């Protein structure tokens, strides 16, 4: 599906009238400019082509907390009708079954992996390579309502891809050479770097690039930190802030209690101010000055106060769950529950800070698992919990 070749052999962007087929892989030595390419091939049954999407190829590097990286090289097609969908599914099945010779061999990565391993001092290898399950997804960019994207991807794990030092992951030396990165992007290509769950950027920087693009020296020096939020607040700072809030609340409560105690009769225990207020409000003298009392409907509500306060406190604890301790799926479900069970996909991207591609892939998987439901409304994707009726939109 993918190929890496020296820049001298780079191909121009394929004609949109020609479909895109995975191509053979060839790896340039580190230090040479290289680019992942593919060649035109696939057509529909009547000879008309499947058109490439924009971008037509996405190179996705998903880092893990042990330093490995899962590479996925995706080739993307426009699907406009049922015939396109049938052709795509048949073609993808042929490629995945090995019946369509695309010339890809993972051993072609061995040379560059060996050189990078020697320069970095880490043991590296390529493993678990193969074709992923083909998928059809909603487009991220603006297309006509009836257009979808067919994706064929080849994935592999590059072990020891990143340096790991305690709670930091360094993405800096594997793609770099003395004169810059050995990987360049051609027109219509996109590189996406995805951090492990619970890790965030130490310094804000891009994690998504569109071609054509040549990476400069140091441009890919990226550091991910475990347990720090998107705004750079570490878990320790968040805990310290929570402690300050709790202490401040306790001090205010004691001040209020002390002021209230000064107004109580000497014979009433200071530890039961709410009982005194409830007892006082439960009976009211009549205008005639007699000893008759009139029941106050608010008395029961006052007596129930401590119980309702306890429930509210439990809810606040749930709301204060650190999102960094949740999986990606749990974060999405939590946001949906906080927003009445429904959100636009674009708002999920905005609130998480993840890339459009990552959110789209995650939501597609969650939809397949039936943990959410996706509904296309015009150019927007509406995401809902399964028990929420999407037609009940305000």
Summarize the SSE layout with pairings.
Layout: E1 3-6, E2 20-21, E3 34-37, E4 39-40, E5 52-63, E6 69-79, H1 82-97, H2 110-120, E7 126-131, E8 135-137, E9 148-158, E10 163-165, E11 168-171, E12 176-177, E13 180-181, E14 189-194, E15 199-201, E16 208-210, E17 222-226, H3 235-261, H4 273-282, H5 298-303, H6 305-319, H7 328-338, E18 342-344, H8 345-352, H9 356-368, E19 373-377, E20 380-384
Parallel strand pairs: 5-14
Antiparallel strand pairs: 1-3, 2-4, 5-6, 6-9, 7-9, 8-9, 10-11, 11-17, 12-13, 14-16, 15-17, 18-20, 19-20
Question: What can you see in these coordinates?
Answer:
- This protein is an alpha+beta fold and 394 residues long.
- It folds into three domains: 3-226, no CATH class; 233-263; 326-384, Winged helix-like DNA-binding domain superfamily/Winged helix DNA-binding domain (Arc Repressor Mutant, subunit A).
- It is built from nine helices and 20 strands.
- The strands form six sheets. Strands 5, 6, 7, 8, 9, 14 and 16 form a seven-stranded mixed sheet that branches.
- The chain is flat and about 75 Å long.
- Residues 1-34, 38-48, 230-235 and 261-317 have low confidence and may be disordered.
